[in-house]
User: Fold these one by one.
Assistant:
Number 1:
Amino acid sequence: MFSFGSLRPYHAVDPGPLKNARLLEPLGYFNIQLGYVLGMGTEIGFDLLRS
């Protein structure tokens, strides 16, 4: 578990084998698109929710 300053703590998630990186990379590009191109800023991100 780790945190970024005053943000809530984060838990690392193992994405599995390296071939899964091809699934995570578009999510990163989408985050950049939202933050910089669409002007939502750099304080945004995604959260994995478990039920």
Number 2:
Amino acid sequence: MPLGMNYLHVLNGDATLEVFRKSGIPGDLVVCREMMCEGRVAPAPDIDTFLQNAPHTCTNTLG
């Protein structure tokens, strides 16, 4: 990794976490467990608003 460079890898679920750790790729890891692929979500001006609205979308889509 070049001097002064830090990497943050955002993984799309727990299934990828162990494989990624074993890969030896440098950087910090975050697992995103949000179901962003389900239902329609209205556009949001920022990530905080999006994350506030997402549970309502999942409830309305999945019941």
Number 3:
Amino acid sequence: MVNQTLDRMRRAPLFKIQLIGLSKEAELTKWLFTIKPELAFDEVSKTDLIIKPAALPNREICGQGYGY
């Protein structure tokens, strides 16, 4: 939202947001979309923030009752 506001004001973005994976070849395809990392983790020299999403439940362990 901050970057979009700055863009409308014709100013440079405040944040650089990138999707990082354990490797560039990492690819996660689930249901309706595919996730492909831009960079491998070892290619990142500096970062201010890392967000690690929670893992999805294992269907074989949790069963089929989750709607996916």
